[in-house]
Amino acid sequence: MTIEVERFFSEQSPLATEVASFRPRAQQRDMALAVAEAIRDNAILVAEAGTGTGKTFAYLVPALLAGGKVVVSTGTKNLQDQLFQKDLPMVRDALKAPVSVALLKGRSNYVCHYHLSLAQSNGLFKTREDVKHLAKIVTYAKVTQSGDKSGLADVPENAPIWMHVTSTRDNCLGQECPQHGECFVLKARKEAMEADVVVVNHHLFFADVRRTSCRRPRACSSAKAFPPRSCSTCRRIPVSRHSPAPRISRRCRWLATNWTRRRATCGWRSRRKGAWRRMWRKASRSSRLR
Fold first, then answer.
1. N or C: which end of the chain has fewer CB within 10 A?
2. How far is 109 from 106, CA to CA, in rounded Å?
3. Chain centroid, CA 26 distance in Å
4. pLDDT digits (tens, 9 = 90+) for 196-247
């Protein structure tokens, strides 16, 4: 594979036919050889290069030549789209490598058919701009193959309407969804499982690492040590005590324990108005939480 990598970054490189401005660069060739050796020896490589070195081609070429499953993670979604739509097809055509490529993003980047129908039926929006954007999203959902919101340039990615037509981990119905078979998220995950090269971003990659590194995944998927509300002190929802959980204040732990006891002794109706407020004041006065 080393000889093929050197030939690819020489003056007779096949990439010259794909990129008119291609010029052989020694730094790019050295980085590509280092990546190829790391793949061959199953080693870890940390490489750093300046702007204009050609880092993308330097790691894509040996990765595609080596074969097997490749996961490429980028820092931002914009770089992810650029890599998937431009760089990877260019290298694949130059190498004439018969590899399949898939793009995978977080759940909130895909249109949800169920929440889209709810948004249409409710019709409660703050501005007229949201109504116009909703009509465009409805049309886009009928013709798109991926459901990725970045494919709809007419609606900005930071538009408030996206919160109404996409799902999250908390409000996703899963297999109970009436439109489960048409889910864009499941389709993207299936394509990623079958593809040779998968392009993801750092946020999604490390979230998957955190989920798969748990020693008790079954317990994590069902354990709920906290009430079904976001913690006002931690500003996040602790998922499980078995996973690498965030730092949780002792006041929140006290509230979770007392909430469980109160529900067991007094029933679900004990969560009447003001119950949480009284428990919070009691937790503030408790000397154990100081």
1. C
2. 6
3. 35
4. 999 999 988 888 887 776 544 443 433 332 233 333 332 233 333 333 444 4
Note whether 27 and 33 are within 8 A (CB).
Answer: no
Please choose, from the candidates 110, 198, 200, the residue with its C-alpha nearest in 3D space to the C-alpha of residue 151: 110
Q: How far apart are CA 87 and CA 82, in angstroms?
A: 7
Rounded Cα distance between 275 and 279, Å, is: 6
Longest dimension (CA), the chain: 79
Strands 101-103 and 70-74 turn out to be unpaired
Around Cβ 100, how many Cβ atoms within 10 Å? 11
In angstroms, how far is CA 57 from the centroid of its own chain? 24
Helices 26-41 & 55-66 angle (0-180, nearest 10):
30
CB 112 within 8 A of CB 170: no
Task: Record the tokens describing residue 228, joined without a space.
Answer: 């079904």
DSSP run (H or E) holding 40? helix 26-41
Residues facing 198 on adjacent strands: 71, 102
What angle in degrees, to the nearest 10, is found between the helix axes of 250-266 and 275-285? 130
Per-residue tokens: 254? 């006290």
Domain boundaries, the chain: 2-100, 107-195, 229-289
The answer to whether the predicted template modeling score (pTM) of the entire model surpasses 0.70 is no
The strands making up 101-103's β-sheet, listed across from edge to edge, are 70-74, 197-201, 101-103
C-alpha dihedral over 118, 124, 129, 133, to 10 degrees? 0
Q: What is the pLDDT of residues 160-178, one digit of tens each?
A: 999 999 998 888 888 889 9
